[in-house]
Design brief:
The protein folds into 2 domains: about 45 residues, FAH (SH3 type barrels); about 200 residues, Fumarylacetoacetate hydrolase, domain 2. The protein has 5 helices and 20 strands. The strands form 3 sheets. Strands 1, 2, 3, 4, 5, 6, 7, 8, 11, 12, 14 and 17 form a 12-stranded mixed beta sheet that branches. Strands 9-20-19-15-16 form a 5-stranded mixed beta sheet, with no helix packed on it. The protein has a 3-stranded antiparallel beta sheet with strand order 13-10-18. The termini are far apart.
Length: about 260
């Protein structure tokens, strides 16, 4: 386990910090994208509200990137990464509610390992790609399937995955995980739905970072959602959805009906 970065609200001040054993937060001077330097203060984790672990700028996401999910979905294996983007307004943090939209008929969870970009880069080689990754956090690519399928029939993909609150992220960024060996689990109301490992990825994190950077400049705070394994399934108002990732804790969010 490497450093664990958190972003939090303490006494109405939003800061970054390092979470250390004993559930203690050491506040950072500035953000997490330079050499870590703490203020010397210590805050109990129970006294802060955890937020999304970075202030997100751009969200890249992949479809059909686990072999098991491709087989489950009965699609052909992709020849290149199947990329789409999600709006920043879809992002929520630990404990915040996933709003089940009034337009929703079939809403599914999707457990994902998310790579957080740590420095600016363009035309990055696969060999150097992981040097541009700050660390990894849990993500949930919540999806409204009826809308998604209608969009995909028209070769589009946005609204079905872009509703407000449809991108929970957190609770921490772990900076020292093996990108090719990260466990990912999803539970709904305590019952396991998904379990896999990034060793099942069709396109590795390094391949994805390199591929995106060939045409788009990656910036600190960008999030790359690397795809979901088999076992996706429905969620409903009243459910508690948990995404667990080796090294990055558990991301828990309730599902609440739109008002």
């Amino acid at each position: 386990m490497g450093d664990q970065i958190v972003r939090y609200n303490f006494n109405n001040n939003i800061s970054y910090g390092l979470l250390v054993p004993g559930d203690i937060v050491h506040p950072l001077i500035g953000g997490p994208f330079n050499a870590f330097k703490t203020t010397g203060d210590k805050i109990n984790l129970c006294d802060v509200t955890l937020l999304t672990p970075v202030e997100v700028s751009t969200i890249f996401a992949l479809g059909l990137n686990y072999a098991s999910h491709v087989k489950e979905s009965k699609y052909d294996f992709p020849e290149i990464p199947m990329l789409f983007m999600k709006p920043v307004t879809s992002v929520i943090g630990p404990g915040e509610a996933i709003i089940y939209p009034k337009e929703g008929e079939i809403v599914h969870h999707e457990a994902e390992v998310c790579a957080i970009i740590g420095k600016k880069g363009r035309h990055i080689s696969e060999e150097k790609a992981l040097d541009f990754v700050l660390g990894y956090t849990c993500g949930n690519d919540v999806s409204e399937r009826k809308i998604q399928r209608a969009e995909m029939a028209q070769h589009a993909l946005l609204v079905g995955k872009g509703f407000d609150t449809f991108t929970p992220l957190g609770p921490v960024i772990d900076t020292d995980l093996d990108a090719n060996n990260i466990d990912i689990i999803a539970r709904v109301n305590g019952k396991e739905r998904q379990r896999s490992n990034t060793s099942d990825l069709i396109f590795s994190v390094a391949q994805i970072v390199s591929y995106i950077s060939k045409s788009i400049t990656l910036m600190p705070g960008d999030v790359i959602m690397t795809g979901t394994p088999s076992g996706v399934g429905p969620i409903l108002p009243g459910d508690i959805v948990e995404i667990e990732m080796s090294g990055a804790g558990v991301l828990s969010n309730p599902v609440v009906a739109a008002g």
